[in-house]
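Annex B.
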Amino acid sequence: MRKVLITGGFGFLGGRIADHLGNQGFEVSLGSRTSKLVPSGFNNCKSVITNWDDTNQLRDVCSDQDVIIHTAGMSAEDCAKDPIASFEFNCIGTMKLLKACKSNERKKFIYLSTAHVYGSPLVGKLSEDSIPRNNHPYATSHLAGEFGVNYANAKGDTEGYNLRVSNGFGAPILEDVNCWKLFVNDLCKQAITKRELTIHSNEQQQRDFIPIRNITKTIEMIINQKNPLNHNTFNLGSGSSFTLFEMAKIIQSRTNHLFHFSPAIITNPNVKNFNGNFLEYNVDRLKSFHLLDNVNLEGELDSLLLYCQNHFGKSTI
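SDR family oxidoreductase: predicted structure tokens.
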């Protein structure tokens, strides 16, 4: 049984990855800064403390792991509030973890970066060869973390991969995870609690939305690769773009399918809409290695809407 450490294992993305890998038979350690109990619903999972200020402790935690999946990091909002802290954690923290992973047996290291290294908002045709142009601390600190992975990879310390994740969405595993500022998650919760879908941003802005189940499956497929891949940086998205209004229409349709009512779509009249913000988030590199499953937006949306109904809904629906 292969052993996997997931930093930020009790977070939104980390929790979903842990749940998926545990169900696939991996022995999963959920890393956290504080001691936490693993909920009963997790299979093959245990909790471990990751002390980012103690190099020896990090080395001990990593010593018997085969794979490290690094999802821990500061949010975009927190990075903007404290740019110095963003680099201390997203960059230096990643470097500390990479150093802790160094051993005689080369470990796989999967770093969850962000598509927003390219810009904000994301526009145009974006491949892994596109030049990152976003100066926001959230983007630059993640890009610096990627450089750390590249350096460790070049030295042969780890078999490292950077995954530049686009706009992921889906139901959380843990109820106390705050994932409701994500656009799709927010709209699905609105559909149940308010019976409306209010779009606060430019409704014509395009985004690449990817179900969390595709992210978790892609990570599993990378882990299962016997030989190192020829590339170590990948765009991880669906490869299809929708405007915010188009995604709201899909959520409206799935709400009607599940609950037999159609929440009204409300746009912000104070936001100036514009055309020409075409987005093509290129995922051909992942596809060339057969590392991206078929994307099922509706399946993930249905699961998310049912989660919202079970946790926030009223019995009248």
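Residues 183-208+240-277+296-311 form a domain with the UDP-galactose 4-epimerase; domain 1 fold (CATH 3.90.25.10). Residues 83-101 form the longest helix (19 residues). Further annotation is deferred to the next reporting cycle.
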